[in-house]
Design a protein that fits this description.
The chain is built from five helices and four strands, in the order ββαααααββ. With about 120 residues, the protein is α+β, with helices and mostly antiparallel strands. Helix 1 runs antiparallel to helix 3, helix 2 packs across helix 5 and helix 3 packs across helix 4. The chain is globular, with a radius of gyration of 16 Å.
């Protein structure tokens, strides 16, 4: 079961559930595989210009980050399930990796989860 407090996301491939966890090693390997930093990876997802290469690296390394073993036929499973079905949990994984323990507010500002807003001096 995925633990959202660790940034984990569950993904189902061909009926089998896997957990993706954004560990430092997983994220560094994704960056290495794709030749760009996580900010670039995130930009590709949010501009909808990502492809199977990004999906495959993120799913493979996310599963390893969670202590799992990626299926040997991962690429075939990704094609079988389709990029549209797989993209949603991968986008959540990428967002968790970028935001860490912060949550995005409706204003678009990111705040640390559990942070207490204190009035500034002079207010």
């Amino acid at each position: 079961m995925a633990n959202p407090h660790r940034g984990e996301v569950k993904i189902t491939l061909a009926g089998q559930e896997y957990t993706l966890r954004p560990t430092f090693d997983a994220l560094a390997q994704i960056e290495n595989d794709l030749g760009m930093g996580m900010a670039g990876v995130t930009a590709r997802f949010f501009s909808r210009t990502h492809g199977f290469r990004e999906i495959e690296s993120i799913v493979r390394n996310g599963i390893i980050g969670a202590g799992g073993q990626p299926p040997k036929d991962l690429r075939d499973l990704l094609v079988k399930d389709g990029i549209t079905k797989i993209s949603s949990p991968v986008i959540v994984f990428v967002s968790n990796a970028i935001l860490g323990d912060r949550e995005v507010e409706p204003s678009g500002e990111a705040e640390t989860a559990g942070a207490v807003n204190t009035p500034s001096a002079g207010t």
